Amino acid sequence: xxxxxxxxxxxxxxxxxxxxxxxxxxxxxxxxxxxxxxxxxxxxxxxxxxxxxxxxxxxxxxxxxxxxxxxxxxxxxxxxxxxxxxxxxxxxxxxxxxxxxxxxxxxxxxxxxxxxxxxxxxxxxxxxxxxxxxxxxxxxxxxxxxxxxxxxxxxxxxxxxxxxxxxxxxxxxxxxxxxxxxxxxxxxxxxxxxxxxxxxxxxxxxxxxxxxxxxxxxxxxxxxxxxxxxxxxxxxxxxxxxxxxxxxxxxxxxxxxxxxxxxxxxxxxxxxxxxxxxxxxxxxxxxxxxxxxxxxxxxxxxxxxxxxxxxxxxxxxxxxxxxxxxxxxxxxxxxxxxxxxxxxxxxxxxxxxxxxxxxxxxxxxxxxxxxxxxxxxxxxxxxxxxxxxxxxxxxxxxxxxxxxxxxxxxxxxxxxxxxxxxxxxxxxxxxxxxxxxxxxxxxxxxxxxxxxxxxxxxxxxxxxx
Length: 465
Prior knowledge:
Layout: H1 7-18, H2 22-29, H3 33-41, H4 50-59, H5 68-75, H6 83-95, H7 99-109, H8 116-128, H9 132-145, H10 152-165, H11 170-180, H12 189-205, H13 209-232, H14 248-265, H15 269-276, H16 290-313, H17 320-329, H18 334-348, H19 353-358, H20 375-395, H21 399-415, H22 419-431, H23 438-457
Helix pairs in contact: 7-9, 8-9, 9-10, 10-11, 11-12, 12-13, 12-14, 12-20, 13-14, 14-15, 14-16, 15-16, 16-18, 18-20, 20-21, 21-22, 21-23
């Protein structure tokens, strides 16, 4: 036994202190007098529902959640807690962000593995409701205590955590992707589509092209299999029954598009061109609704842009006027396309000053240019664009401006905790160090100090955090 106060003793003392009788407090709280008496004085006492506790708390002029830590014992008061009351309490804790109480309950429940299905189900309910930080606790509990390593709920929990961990921190994204990767094939097939697409996109931002290629191929294969299953299904709406986030045609097309991009970045232009043909016209795809048709049109534009990319990377600067017309028609393509144009100019030694006047790169707001791409991919492209632009300016002997752009790119890499990209840019600065101003040298040395310090303590490079 402990000397900790019980929820009933605390409530009773509060009633006494404020001078409430059961009758007057019943009127104030809206709870029947007999019910109040059974809750506070019954032998055994009547269990308190979370709704009743909130009414009591409000009537006592206390903040909602004030007595939740004490209510834990109400939910787990025996070897067989009332699951309905327990679920109601956990959902209410999530609703008002009482995460510490959720952690306490989950640590108690973990002693009995029979609760894992309930824990997982509540996590899924919270995830769908947008209560992601609360859902995280439930998924972490499943991952920690699930003993069947091939269970579907473990794979889904790992997938949800992977998705929630993705953000602007490149190092964290890498760790999250590496941790989730072994679980990808244990997901239900419709969720595998999203898992593979997210893995490929994550490794794309990390510029790990062989990984992008691998997961893009897996995505191609799975999307094709799912497409054939839907075609043979007797259901009137087989595509709508899939739990994936996007139309099936997206996954099919992205498998080819991502593989094409990975091959392009590895300099395998002919192989990349063959992949473009796989997504440039998907109008044959059965089951296209209005959303699907819009996605098909996006792929057509991307295919045109990527054909131009491959042409210009091969040194064909003559197609630039056509390419720029495409960008004027589809401004959301400016960021990814301009990055390729600058890179191609550096690889092939031609000038693009007129292009840069028409599409200037002068602020980090550029990374938020309206387009069809996810934020993390945009930021990676914007980083690479500034790096390529620094190379271009230095090649033209515009040293001060080129080094200024390079330092900007270095700072941007630090803000994204992209240590690999940062270190890739260091040799370029060292090569031109003698042209740097004293202020530029100080900025560079300061950035190097931050990165090295972050590496020593294993905390990454996140200044100001």
